Amino acid sequence: MKKSVEAYTLEDRKKHIVVKEKNKEQGIKCDQHSISGAVSQRACVYCGARVVLNPITDAVHIIHGPIGCSSYTWDIRGSLSSDSEMYRNSFSTDLQERDIIFGGEKKLAGAIDEIVESMSPQTIFVYSTCVVGVIGDDLDAVCKQAEKKYNIRVIPVKSSGFAGSKKDGYQAACNAIISLMDDKEYKIDIKDHRTLNYLGDFNLAGEVWILNNYFKEIGVNMITGVTGDSTIEKLKKAQNASFNIVQCAGSSIYLAKMMEERFKIPYEQVSFFGIQDTANSLLNVARLTGDKKIIRDTEVFIKQKKADIASILQKYKEKCAGKKVAIYVGGGFKAISLIKQFNELGMTTVMVGTQTGRQEEYDTIKELAEEGTVILDDTNPTELQKFIKEKGADLLVGGVKERPLAYKLGIAFIDHNHERKLPLLGFEGAVNFAKEVDLTVNSPVWNLVREG
Amino acid sequence: MNKNYVNLDVNPCKMCMPMGGSLAFKGIENSMILMHGSQGCSTYIRRHIATHYNEPIDIASTSLSENGTIYGGAKNLKHGIMNVMESYSPKVIGVLTTCLAETIGEDIRGIIEEFKQKKDISCLDIIPVSTPGYGASHFEGYYHTIRNIISFYNEKQAIPNEKINIIVSNITSADIREIKRIIELFQVEYVLIPDTSETLDAPYKENFTKIPDGGTSIEDIKQMSGAKATIELSVLIDDIYSPGKYLEDLHQVPLYQCPIPIGMKNVDSFIKALCTITGREIPVSLVEERGRMLDAIVDSHKYNGEGRAAIYGDPEIVYAVTTLCNENGIKPMIVASGSKSYKIRDLLKLNESVVIPDTDFETIHKYVKELKPNLLIGNSEGKFIKEKEGTDLVRIGFPIHDHIGAQRKLYVGYNGSLRFLDEITNTLLDIKHHGYRERLYNEFYVNKGGNKNAQL
């Protein structure tokens, strides 16, 4: 195994790969800038910011830059809305050569004027892209002036693509969100102990709604998902929660920390992927209310929900158990949940990697992983191909770019990305997940593929 | 007014120059792309192409960071080339610039020269192409890149040969296979560029290779300046981007510019060009195919006569589709493109249609609401209008993200045009058949003929 890491890997990449050995201290190099020419699967700062902010349904999202950044992100994600559809549009200042030479501030100011006149939005986010960071447009000044002129919020999001990684984009987005929350008008004096915000969920395929239904069942009030199916109004009220829970830590833990500091709202990390994690996290939410009745109701609710899906899950488990899985996802927390979730189905993870996992997340991954599991940080198609083949994986779970690779290698694939149209969260999601695994792993097409 | 807004593009009907450059390089044999810029450009472009073709799309990035942006990206670029060489061992690396590299003024040619002097890379060609995202759209980026690839290998004129150059637009892999078949009927040798017939529609193989088989070979490209003639399947691209124009101006290769051969007249002009260049008669099988198409369009002319289309996307495709619609009585109500190909207005001469180059989907949507076409013809980005207005969408062009099989759909030649026209006709028939009983019942039984606005 070690030999193969040597043979297939660029020199710069070697420390980003670990093959788990028990009782051995094994650090992995992570949280680094991607290596030139390595064909990283990562995106950029702008991508991070857009992922987090875009689900705010009634805001106008203006991308200040040339057209590409706007084209490739127009309505590509599965975030659903119960209200406005504004967020599904992609507004771009479509900077041209002359704007690069003479500056784009005037165009941006003009764009804001036009948008305000035609759509009268309450809030506009203005994302900076690579060139804007270089030509020196004063985004802050343009936005400030527009705020004054129209008495609305115009929030600059510092997301020049090169200025860090996707994570820095998450932070820029979190900064933009907290700047909304600091609205004194929305502050109430006495907080309800049963009230929470649900951070780091983007309501893909209605997942925030599924969770909110659970919360209602157990007697907890959600002010808003952050940012799934949120509105500006809801986000302004978020400061009144008694506690926050965080699903996608990579993108939203920073916001949770800021909210704790500024509004004294404690937070807890949760995960609603897989039955065990969902059950534990719901109990955690109940405990955070400190309300005995809620805790008791939650226990009953979990028991009921588990019973509802036990037989169907067992059926899928029988069909899928024993298969070997390769995981490559964005954040560490998702990878951890997936390992557990595959375990619930009797499946073993043989390769696991993330684009932007943190050291402590890799430690957990290593703890959960079986001996010999390949752990990868910021990997690429070359490494994915080699390790999938070498470890004999039957299934890859990953993003859109990885899907055709899995199929070319003749293995099954699970879409666990932001484009998904099937909820994978909570108890319903656990069933969907098992169904999805069965659908791909046990498809008859693999017989034809094997026969050649 | 081309757009609803002066300072904004709302829901883009175009992509950026490096996208066009990537699509062009994907048709070059044994090549890899290294995008000089921040990491996101390559990733977004990979996602956009991969979802359309369902093929792995590997594009490397020099992953410029703040350091590279301030102090220059030479180190990144050289390191990137080394890593791509090591991981992929390509014969060609296309280095495409991005907004960022261009804005900080990277001299990629100079950096590559410097690199070549220090490293022995005799079996590798590094082709630099300047594709700033703000320079033009993917449409121009595509031709500009092909032009650069050709000029890279044809500084000196090649020995005169009997081959014909075929420069194709961004059409499907199946279309390229069909164009090859047609040319082969003329029993003539040719160089087709960029050839994505295999690279972006690769067969399943037991041993997957990261760089797919196929693509235009370097040996072939080197002969282009000595070719007998060039057929460029483009009538809208500006001369400065045109690869055929380069070969004509510099190497006196006669240039025939034809529309994409979709629609009878457009296929005819492609076939006519082949006849003129080769001095041969039209092959019998093509005569039969043409006859079959003629027979079919007569069969379906009344159904098509009820078509009112909004056509949008890449200018060349929009032009060809509009011709097809016109000759079959499908009224082109809206003819739109995000690229600045204003020439389309002069070429189409449509007085009763809204012809809008340099526009966006927000504007197209506005006209759809106003003019109420019963068909959208274009890429899958029209899904938004389809969803809001309920107008049926017949898909052609790039990207198609909401259906599978875009790369193997045939649109060109008599066979392809007919298949595509049938798809349009059948969509119109479905509209007609769906609910006509209810419509007529309401109109004549319930309203007693009082509803004057009833139509298909």
TrEMBL record, chain A:
Keyword Magnesium part of the UniProt annotation: no
Keywords associated with the record: Nitrogen fixation
Top-level lineage group: Bacteria
Biological process according to GO: protein-containing complex assembly
Domain spans labelled Nitrogenase/oxidoreductase component: 44-440
Pathway stated in the Swiss-Prot or TrEMBL entry: Cofactor biosynthesis; Fe-Mo cofactor biosynthesis
GO MF term list: nitrogenase activity
InterPro entries the record matches: Nase/OxRdtase_comp1 (IPR000510), Nase_comp1_CS (IPR000318), NifE (IPR005973), NifE-like (IPR049939)
Pfam families: Oxidored_nitro (PF00148)
NCBIfam families tied to this protein: nifE
Function of the protein: This protein may play a role in the biosynthesis of the prosthetic group of nitrogenase (FeMo cofactor).
PANTHER family referenced in this protein's UniProt entry, alphabetically: NITROGENASE IRON-MOLYBDENUM COFACTOR BIOSYNTHESIS PROTEIN NIFE (PTHR42956:SF1)
Family per record: Belongs to the NifD/NifK/NifE/NifN family.
Name of the featured protein: Nitrogenase iron-molybdenum cofactor biosynthesis protein NifE
Lineage: Bacteria, Bacillati, Bacillota, Clostridia, Eubacteriales
From TrEMBL, chain B:
GO molecular function (one): nitrogenase activity
UniProt keywords, alphabetically: Nitrogen fixation
Protein name per the record: Nitrogenase
Domain Nitrogenase/oxidoreductase component: from-to ranges: 16-428
Family: Belongs to the NifD/NifK/NifE/NifN family.
PROSITE patterns: NITROGENASE_1_1 (PS00699)
Transmembrane stretches, start-end: none
Annotated source species: Alkalibaculum sporogenes
Pfam families noted in UniProt: Oxidored_nitro
Cited InterPro entries: ChlB/BchB/BchZ (IPR050152), Nase/OxRdtase_comp1 (IPR000510), Nase_comp1_CS (IPR000318)
Keyword Cell division tagged: no
Annotated signal sequence range: none
Species lineage: Bacteria, Bacillati, Bacillota, Clostridia, Eubacteriales
